[in-house]
Amino acid sequence: MTLDLLTELARQRAAGPYDAQARRVPDFLNDLGYDQYRDFRFRHERAYWHGADLPFELEFFHPGYLYQKYVEMYETGSDGAVSPIPFSPDYFDYGPQAELIPSLPDQLGFSGFHLWRGRTGDTPRRDGDEGRIGLFQGASYFRMVSPSNEYGLSGRSLAINTTTAEAEEFPDITAFWFQRPAPGDDSFTFLALLEGPSVVGAYRFVWTPGDPIRLAVEARVVLRAEVSELGLAPFSTMFWYGENTAHRPADFRPEVHDSDGLFIQTQDEHIWRPLSNPPRTRTDHLPGDRLVAWGLQQRDRDYEHYQDIEADYHLRPDAWVVPGEGMQHGSLRLLEIAIPHEYADNMALVWSPEEMPAVGEVFSFEYDVYFGKRALPDLAAVVATRYGESLRADGSMEFVIDFQGDALDALVDDSDLLVLDIASEIEGGEFIWQNFRRNPYNDTWRLTLRVLPEDGPNEVRLSAAIFNAGTPVSETWRYWWMR
To answer: In CATH terms, is domain 381-482 a member of 3.20.20.10?
Structure first.
């Protein structure tokens, strides 16, 4: 199988109707609860290609619970020959659910796969081994892990109508074709067919382990029907509360989030946009042209700020995109959904092209996505955002932003500093007072803004950057506050 052949298959599928019931697994599997599904354990010794002295191995996920459709899987040999990888209950230890084995249908597949580094001999594997690389499971979701991080936020191959008023569509990857690795390979290549009511897509992925880990994506999608929003290079993450949460839940942990902000690097500036759990769901439209990279970060990596020895939020990865062909003109859209707990991803980030492809037309695009720990910009970076009610009786709010970085080390006199165009960078309020000074306790610099919100919805948009003698020395802080 090649990407060109898969593209032609996608074009043919897009000309026909979508079968919503295709590959659906039996109800007795789909009705399983979380704990019951967790009883299905892949037998590590049955990993695909284990014992073949190859640099990569595959393990598979069982269908059922949330994963109500199976995915077809194939191996492509060095000669181009394609062989199916059939489902077998022998891959799994069912534990207390072993009584279900006789009821499993002959026509069944896996719900996803987990890529690992290859092992030699009979070396045992445990679930937390450093050999983990990444996984695909559920619709077109994937996650990756670098040596310095744990699993955290998710990527997706494609998102439809995520930030619009239209019903969101979750296209499924229906089949994978894995290129059999050769000894000495340092990357792993596979193809995927994606299909949904409004779209069919052909994808080529190249996974390269490292720190950070990289997934190169080459995609060709064909619309079956018009959609309101085509979301490329999507991410999903969770933000319950953090430093910028004024009224926190009654929880022993100071902060709970997988990511704490969105960074955007354009050819003209660096932007930091902190995430927040808003009082009501909202969508923010952000710069999407002249992009160098963008993504979601967990900048705060101090364990003391989380105090969670199970979730390890301080080890969650950053994830970012470097765009390629077909991703020059568009917009970034950030959806923030209000949540009462940490058990749902309430942040979604997509890049949407300026011009939508026509129905039936092949739309091609490429990008690289990285998971790991991304370095901060050379400019001073925002390391904390806080706010609270002012002590004044005028209803004003105070926003406190901490900057840190080598770019500020040479600044010794507060009078040399200027907050650029602060008055023109506020919507929904007015600036009452501002101050910028060095914090003597941790060598950061603190910008304090006192803001009076306008009457009405009580929401303010703010932006600030630090300049010295007309030259930027910090990234741009952007914030959307809502009461």
So the answer is: no
